[in-house]
Amino acid sequence: MDEEARKKKRLYAGEKKPSMKRRLDGHDYSSRCIYLVTMVTEGRLPLFGKVVGDVHKPYGDPDAPHTVPTPLGAAIFDNWSGMLARFPEMTGIAFQLMPDHFHAILFITGKMANPLGKVLNGFKTGCRQAFHALCPVLYDAAAQRQHKDAHRKASDHGILFELNYNDKVLLRGGQLDIWKHYLADNPRRLLVKREHPEFFRVQRSLVWKGMTFSGLGNLFLLRRPMLVQIQCSRSLSEKQIAAKTAETLALCRQGAVLVSPSVSPGEKAVMRAAFDAGFPEIILKDNGFAPLAKPSGKSFDACALGQLLFLGPTYHSNERKTITRSECLGLNEIARRLCE
């Protein structure tokens, strides 16, 4: 589809809806590219397996967290492998089965006759057949629920998987290694979340000091007696930032909890130093949180230890945007009020 045809199509598409399952606008999904694909079971039913293991064991250890698949989970993997075998232009890089979803990294090495979505629809058909054969009672219940929809096109229900799927397109250097680590670490992260559910549950409509937030992390940090705002001008020199960092770390050792949107280079440097030293922080965001949002990277483990609290507005948007100066000033004002 060329740009002119795409513009005409947008005229009839209606208002863009928030979704984690939209395709990348303007991208050719039949071209050479690497993707991270995620599919989730309808209703988040844990049909594919059970995660077991010791969260303290390193990846690769026999006792490290891993998924023990059900017969259906094994069939999902077999169907994925079969799809790769049928399309020589597709190469699997990684696959991670979880109880209610799976992630896969997929490399399309050359131009395909059909776009990725059409190929994945065929994969989902094979999985649905396996679901029917292995779990007939659950399959019939899902099919009946779908049949009851008065208007099929408006249905929000799939049978085995939720309608549609999520994909990410590889765009930057280093992104592939991050994806591979994320997939390998998924079972451990699930067990950690189960050990500390209070730190990984998105809280809505939190009211504090006359302001309303959504939050993720250790809410008790708000009640600590010493909250210190970190606000640094972009004009600070490296020497001034280093002095600010040393001053702040001294306050942290006295029990301070740092509060900042962490936007300017100075703010990022100070907050990173405190984070690396294991001190608690409240981080203000310019966007809210999706229902299943969770921190990434080292922030995930820090959150499990109660070291972090993320606060954002009550709404969430999937649109990527650059934070404006007025939004930065607004976040700094919120930080000031929290620390009063």
From TrEMBL:
Superkingdom in the source lineage: Bacteria
GO BP field: DNA transposition
Alphabetized InterPro entries for the sequence: Transposase_17_sf
GO molecular function terms attached to this record: DNA binding; transposase activity
SUPFAM superfamilies: Transposase IS200-like
The protein's name in its UniProt record: Transposase
Lineage per the UniProt record: Bacteria, Pseudomonadati, Bacteroidota, Bacteroidia, Bacteroidales
